[in-house]
Structure prediction request, 84 residues.
Amino acid sequence: MIEHLKSRGILAVFHYLPLHLSKMGREFGGRLGQCPVTERVGNCLLRLPFYNDLSESEQSQVVEAVQQFDGWKTAPRSTAKGGA
Prediction:
């Protein structure tokens, strides 16, 4: 999705690092696999453009680009147990 938006001139970035995997979290014993749902969700979040001066036209471009993304059909599905 990030590459898809970038190809349309829209900046979207990775959004979330689970706290237990952050530098501080690891210092307190956090490790990969400890919170599988949080890790799965963290891998699915991205930050879309959002600021006060974003015009309605720019908002429409972002919405249209998201709607046109066809990677939903080919993106791998999570197999984590207990997740929705």
Observations:
- The mean pLDDT is 86.
- The longest helix spans residues 56-68.
- Residues 15 and 46 are 5 Å apart (CA to CA).
- The helical segments are 2-6, 23-27, 36-42, 56-68.
